[in-house]
Amino acid sequence: MKNEISRREAMMQIGCIGAAALLNYENIMAENQQTMLQRNIPGTKEKLPVVGLGSWIQFDVGDSPSEKEGLTEVLTSMNKLGGKVIDSSPMYGRAEQVIGDLTAGLDFKDNFFYATKVWTTGKQAGIDQMNESFLKMRRKTMDLMQVHNLQDWQMHLKTIKGWKEEGKVRYAGITHYSVSAHQQLEQIVRSKVVDFVQFNYSIKVRNAEKSLLKTAQDNGVAVIINEPFDSGSLFKMVKGKALPPWAGDYDIKSWAQFFLKYILANPAVNCVIPGTSDKKHLVDNMGAGFGKLPDEAGLKMMLKYIETV
């Protein structure tokens, strides 16, 4: 909730874009028949839209209609704007169950790319937990099963790869949220035992630029980015600050898009998954997948500008 508040406060300070303009994205993109930028998953060449949705905190809600109503709007807008990836985990409280309950009632539920994780120790415990995730998310086939924070990753990957051969899982992956794990992630990526790797990366936390991003690209491993707003600290940093005048040259209409487009400018990134339970924020985030991305000159200006705020 603190992250959402800080973002809301930051958006209120921006004069270039209002809530009405953000929500109008849906109609503008539909009318112009624009589609979100997509990138191929290495190996299969399946295309994924570059902006998805994380579910930590925001989807960990109760059963009351009032708690779930806004989340249904988020999923509906996401589908309308072409987003697909929904990322969850057993670690996220009721998020898997809520995702399963909400999508079950949607006509377009099969449009999404469902990703979750295993977060336990031991072969049978992993099998039991993953089967429970299938039940909660109401999926017969999981698009992506990931080992959360590398916990007992060698054991779980054996199970996941077996399930992939059986058709129960489509892709295998590993995840972490900390820079301290980047070196180990890179070693695993080099071994080519996974299809996806998920890690933290933002305009202020750029350790992945040293070698992890390039290693994933060179070894044919798809990349999902978490913590794109650095746990909300980026919005606190720019509170009360105006976007630079040249931001429009890259179709940047808000600080959220500024931060997300910096990440998406790297061709190694397949998808970024900012979490939100707010429709306005969802539409804003999805907007980063449309229009021009920063070139090398633009990235340098973005970094220089951020150093001044």
From TrEMBL:
Q: Start and end of every NADP-dependent oxidoreductase domain? A: 51-296
Q: Which CDD domains match?
A: AKR_PA4992-like
Organism annotation? Dyadobacter subterraneus
UniProt cross-references to InterPro entries, sorted A to Z? AKR2_Oxidoreductase, NAD(P)_OxRdtase_dom_sf, NADP_OxRdtase_dom
Pfam families (alphabetical)? Aldo_ket_red
Protein name per the record: Aldo/keto reductase
